């Protein structure tokens, strides 16, 4: 982990200049605040001529705007990651294949001997692998960037990904389905305050042969969520469950909405009990346990909450999807609440500080405020 140089005033009024090891600038600042430091200044050691101050702000622990304090700095840093740079990174992960192929082609082209079958094989293999990369790797990479952009509420980047995905599908005749792209566009419009436009954007998908009504309603609930219309979100999920009562995901979604948006312990538990005896794939079980842990937190059962959340965390660690970041962030906030209620908030401070900017980017301000207060009092 990187070291962050800082100057700060401790609880006794002494000025301290030191370095702190942390995963991110946001985590470094939050760790110092929890230790009682104030007037915190961070410096960047990258400027060898003159140590340049990178961040100077007050002592509050809820700077939520980009460019203002630690959470904003980290949010802005994620939003500065360009799509092209991330695609080049993905290409670099395949350099161990492209590199030898291109070297093979170059040696064949520069050689004085006549072309042999091996030379022709190299010239055929290179474009073939480029096609494989375009068909299999690029769509997945674009989708991953799109998910990450949504997690950080970076809607311009998501729109660039959508344009690129459509271009790729036009050229390669494969890729991310149009239905998915339309819902992603609707989520962005809803998050930016245009709920009516977002709903109209996906209305033509209702009745689509590839999209059952309960699936449509499930996706529509996310549009309402991004708009902050949690009553509309709940209504969509309830209708989806009524149409597909034998499903599993719908009941988890229903429990999650009831507990996250309304802190309805009885309603959330009733939904989870409908599927309590089922066998789940690991990913689904992780989300089930996360929801179960959140319910236990709201029911003032911190030990049971911690048990469910830790098990969920272990399962989520097996997956690398960008979507897992959002689940992990929410999990750490609830885990901080559970441990703080047991007098062990210190165990969660570092992990919670790591995900706090992501929660703020996702407008989970109420959850952040509760976790902040619980850890401050622990």
Automatic annotation (TrEMBL):
Protein name: Tetratricopeptide repeat protein
Keywords: Membrane, Transmembrane, Transmembrane helix
Transmembrane segments: 87-107, 127-153
Matching InterPro entries: TPR-like_helical_dom_sf
Lineage: Bacteria, Pseudomonadati, Verrucomicrobiota, Opitutia, Opitutales
